[in-house]
Design goal:
- The protein has 277 residues and is of the alpha/beta class.
- It has one domain: Rossmann fold, CATH 3.40.50.
- The chain has nine helices and ten strands.
- α1 crosses α7 and α4 runs parallel beside α5.
- It starts with a strand and ends in a 9-residue tail after the last strand.
């Protein structure tokens, strides 16, 4: 574990988010959200697995006036992650936590089954890693009776896809877990939001060789996410037209949908890309 810390004023104005935790902050949506929150008086706690890229994110946020603490951690390591989050919260209680770290992956063209080791890595990172992140966060927010939690889901959670069954299963489980938390924590002053993006131009998406309707830049995606988080909405699903189309697609008989999806040629690079790397 590597811990990097710089200190500025600890002034806290609760009209703004002053202490924000983001996992998977070294690239993609995680990096974009970190930069979006970065401002004078804001404390960012950023988690990632690639020291170089995490340092780049930190430098970008510090240039905007934020205080940044970086933890080079794997979200699958429950004990180290929990200890780090509690130490951060002791120093500056968290207002917002975004469980963004995740791993993509799926089937290479022509293959019928995913590699068993890759399947377990995807589920451990996306589902167990999210739970590992939120356990200590929810514990502390419950003690204070306030806070906001967000989890990164996916459109693949709404309908299983034949080229990424493990990834879709992990994200569907994340959605269900967050929905359960939302109902349990709301009466204690804690808001829970599910972020379900379509295709966003990240390294993970670049590993996917397939049609990518309504592909969105990271910058635009972050603007949509921030608007939703600032409003505290329960679900941020975008692009909206693609989300509505996905919901309508669930009304189609399963055998028809399965046949249509099976006709789409898709190739996923082995292992995908970890958002926490």
């Amino acid at each position: 574990m590597i811990l990097l810390r710089k200190r500025v004023s600890t002034f806290r104005d609760h009209s703004l988010a002053q202490s924000v935790l983001i996992t998977g902050a070294s690239s993609g949506i995680g990096r974009g959200l970190a930069a979006s929150y970065a401002a004078p008086g804001v404390r960012l706690a950023l988690v990632g697995r690639n020291a170089g890229r995490l340092a780049e994110t930190a430098a970008q946020c510090e240039a905007r006036g934020a205080t940044v603490t970086c933890g080079m951690l794997d979200v699958r390591d429950r004990e180290k992650l929990a200890a780090w989050i509690r130490a951060i919260d002791d120093e500056c209680p968290l207002d917002i936590a975004v469980a963004n770290a995740g791993m993509g992956g799926g089937l290479r063209f022509g293959r019928l089954f995913e590699d068993p080791a890759a399947v377990r890595a995807i589920i451990d990172t996306n589902l167990v890693g999210t739970i590992n992140t939120l356990d200590p966060v929810a514990e502390r927010m419950l003690m204070r009776g306030r806070g906001q939690i967000a989890v990164l889901g996916s459109f693949s959670a709404f309908r299983g896809l034949p080229y990424c069954p493990a990834y879709g299963a992990s994200k569907a489980a994340v959605h269900a877990y967050a929905e359960g938390l939302r109902g349990a924590l709301a009466r204690h002053g804690i808001r829970v939001t599910i972020i379900a993006p379509g295709f966003v131009a990240t390294a993970m998406t670049r590993n996917l060789v397939a049609p990518k309707p309504l592909l969105m830049s990271v910058e635009r995606a972050v603007r949509v996410i921030r608007r939703g988080l600032d409003r505290g909405v329960p679900l941020i699903a975008f692009p909206r037209i693609l989300y509505l189309g996905t919901l309508l697609g669930r009304l189609v008989p399963s055998r028809w949908a399965d046949r249509a999806l099976a006709r789409i040629d898709v190739d996923v690079a082995d292992g995908g890309e970890t958002a926490s790397s």
